[in-house]
């Protein structure tokens, strides 16, 4: 992960193989927007499915889908109109604007400059003589800019609206419906996977900072007098690397090495529910291919925390260009429900068995899918013998199988198409390719991240067997066509390994 050009390599592969590319290319492009191709949409759906498997399916979490455009009153009540802002510096010459804290981080070795506050940002720009990265001219003093997309609702524009910058607010304003559907019992959670928009000042690095992206969020509502999490035992032995507020205050970046259970016992994570979801988050990101020593949880200092949060930990991963936040874990207390109770003049309290009423508290795990997408690609990448390989986990890979005829004559193409059709009918995601030499097809399949390639050759016509090639090891086995579907089902359900698929072939 030390290759400074790895980001460019991944971007080139993504364009070439159809994972993603800049949007509006024929019109010159527009920063902050990407288009997912065929492989990209399939990988994206697989990541969404994996997230649901970790966060919603096993726990029977309720899921909703709400509008992207919200009336202004929603964000006035939530505090976003006042607080969802970033410092922007405009060039005195070319007029381009840039996010001030990012300019400072690019010029220095400093991290999380945003957390230092506005006065520090203004001072650091001057101290480090930060200039416009486009033309080198001086910059104006930074000012706070609202980073939400504003629009007019209705043909006459009589109502102001905003595109949601997160999915959370729709879950808070639908809390009463969710509580009803949860049989009026706490704890319960609402989850949502959908598009959000943020009017970023200066988007950069492709998928890691865009103006439109898919978010995966969950809001867990609980009684603050009963904060216990019944599922905590499932993750209490999960090892994590934790940078606490105290460490950050002492300018220390070396994380503590401990388990989720130990972090709760020491009071480093305030709420057991937050700890549970941090443990699940560790398992989820590990499933995407990120090793333990490339993950950490970093606390937010008070000046960095969002206006609604009593404690926040960012789940970060190490990439070739540094640490990147891939998830946020916030203890939002009762801030949001109380805000909407006041804004909508609607009772958001619930009744305890002893007759007292209270406003539920909330913990939130939030994931920007584009960042998990890019992280999975970068951590899957290997360069071997002048070939690119994406070692995507078998349940994430866009296509499970590539199907090749050795050559396109003597009936091999027709036999390969027959095998291809049968495997598709059996439910596999397959890609047929007969262009160029079989060696080039293997190389394309490896670069696309397809776990297995099935090759039909002359022996197939004689003994009705095929060759299966492993993307990761480049080893091959021979298996009868009649056993192919059942063997592959075992492999993709993780009950069999590659060597179980057939008789090994000598290299």
Protein model, in words:
The chain has 17 helices and 27 strands. The longest helix is centred in the N-terminal third of the chain and has 20 residues, at 38-57. With 507 residues, the protein is of the alpha+beta class. It has 3 domains: 40-62 and 166-378, Bira Bifunctional Protein, Domain 2 (BirA Bifunctional Protein, domain 2), CATH 3.30.930.10; 85-146, Herpes Virus-1 (2-Layer Sandwich); 399-504, Anticodon-binding domain (Rossmann fold). A hairpin with a 5-residue loop joins strand 17 (350-351) and strand 18 (357-358). Strands 3-10-11-19-16-15-14-12-13 form a 9-stranded mixed beta sheet, with helices on both faces. A 6-stranded mixed beta sheet has the order 23-22-24-25-26-27, sandwiched between helices. Helix content is 33%, strand content 27%.
Please render the helix and strand layout as text:
Elements: H1 6-17, E1 20-22, E2 34-36, H2 38-57, E3 62-63, E4 69-71, H3 72-78, H4 80-83, E5 85-90, E6 97-99, H5 100-107, H6 118-127, E7 143-146, E8 150-153, E9 159-163, H7 168-173, H8 175-181, E10 188-197, E11 212-222, E12 239-243, H9 245-249, E13 256-259, H10 260-265, H11 272-287, E14 295-299, E15 311-319, E16 322-333, H12 335-344, E17 350-351, E18 357-358, E19 361-368, H13 369-380, E20 381-384, E21 387-390, E22 401-405, H14 412-425, E23 430-432, H15 438-448, E24 452-456, H16 458-463, E25 465-470, E26 476-480, H17 481-492, E27 503-504
Parallel strand pairs: 3-10, 12-14, 22-23, 22-24
Antiparallel strand pairs: 1-2, 4-9, 5-6, 5-7, 8-9, 10-11, 11-19, 12-13, 14-15, 15-16, 16-19, 17-18, 20-21, 24-25, 25-26, 26-27
Helix pairs in contact: 2-11, 2-13, 3-12, 5-6
């Amino acid at each position: 992960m030390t290759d400074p050009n790895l980001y460019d390599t991944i971007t080139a592969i993504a364009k070439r193989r159809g994972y993603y590319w800049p949007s509006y290319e024929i019109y010159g492009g527009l920063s902050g927007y990407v288009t997912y191709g065929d492989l990209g949409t399939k990988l994206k759906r697989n990541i969404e499915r994996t997230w649901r498997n970790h966060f919603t399916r096993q726990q029977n979490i309720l899921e909703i889908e709400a509008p992207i455009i919200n009336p202004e009153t929603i964000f006035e009540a939530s505090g976003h109109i006042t607080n969802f802002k970033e410092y922007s510096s405009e060039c005195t010459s070319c007029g381009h604007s840039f996010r001030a804290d990012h300019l400072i981080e690019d010029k220095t070795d400093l991290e999380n400059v945003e957390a230092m506050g506005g006065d520090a940002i203004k001072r650091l720009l001057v101290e480090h003589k930060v200039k416009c990265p486009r033309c080198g001219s001086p910059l104006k003093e930074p000012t706070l800019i609202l980073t939400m997309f504003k629009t007019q609702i209705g043909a006459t524009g009589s109502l102001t609206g905003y595109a949601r910058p997160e999915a959370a607010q729709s879950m808070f304003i639908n809390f009463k419906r969710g509580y009803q559907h949860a049989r009026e019992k706490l704890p319960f959670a609402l989850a949502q996977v959908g598009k959000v928009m943020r009017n970023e000042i200066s988007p950069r690095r492709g998928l890691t900072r865009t103006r439109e992206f898919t978010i995966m969020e969950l809001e867990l509502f609980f009684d603050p007098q009963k904060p216990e999490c019944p599922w905590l035992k499932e993750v209490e032995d999960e090892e994590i690397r934790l940078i606490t507020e105290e460490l950050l205050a002492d300018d220390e970046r070396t994380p503590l090495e401990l388990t989720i259970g130990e972090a709760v016992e020491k009071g480093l994570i305030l709420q057991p529910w937050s700890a549970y979801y941090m443990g699940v988050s560790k398992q989820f990101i590990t499933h995407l291919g990120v090793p333990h020593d490339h993950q950490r949880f970093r606390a937010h200092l008070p000046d960095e925390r969002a206006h609604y949060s009593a404690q926040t930990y960012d789940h970060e991963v190490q990439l070739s260009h540094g640490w990147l936040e891939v998830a946020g874990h916030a203890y939002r207390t009762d801030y949001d429900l109380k805000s909407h109770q006041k804004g909508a003049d609607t009772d958001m309290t619930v009744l305890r068995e002893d007759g007292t009423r209270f406003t539920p508290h909330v913990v939130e795990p939030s994931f920007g899918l584009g960042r998990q997408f890019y992280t999975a690609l970068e951590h899957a990448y290997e360069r071997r013998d002048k070939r690119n390989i994406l070692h995507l986990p078998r349940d994430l890979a866009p296509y499970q199988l590539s199907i090749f005829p050795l050559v396109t004559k003597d009936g091999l193409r027709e036999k390969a198409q027959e095998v291809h059709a049968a495997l598709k009918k059996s439910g596999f995601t397959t890609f047929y390719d007969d262009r160029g030499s079989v060696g080039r097809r293997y190389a394309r399949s490896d670069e696309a991240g397809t776990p297995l390639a099935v090759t039909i050759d002359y022996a197939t016509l004689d003994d009705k067997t095929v060759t299966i090639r492993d993307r990761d090891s480049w080893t091959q086995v021979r298996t009868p066509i009649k056993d192919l579907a059942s063997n592959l089902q075992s492999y993709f359900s993780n009950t069999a390994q590659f060597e179980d698929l057939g008789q090994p072939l000598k290299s």
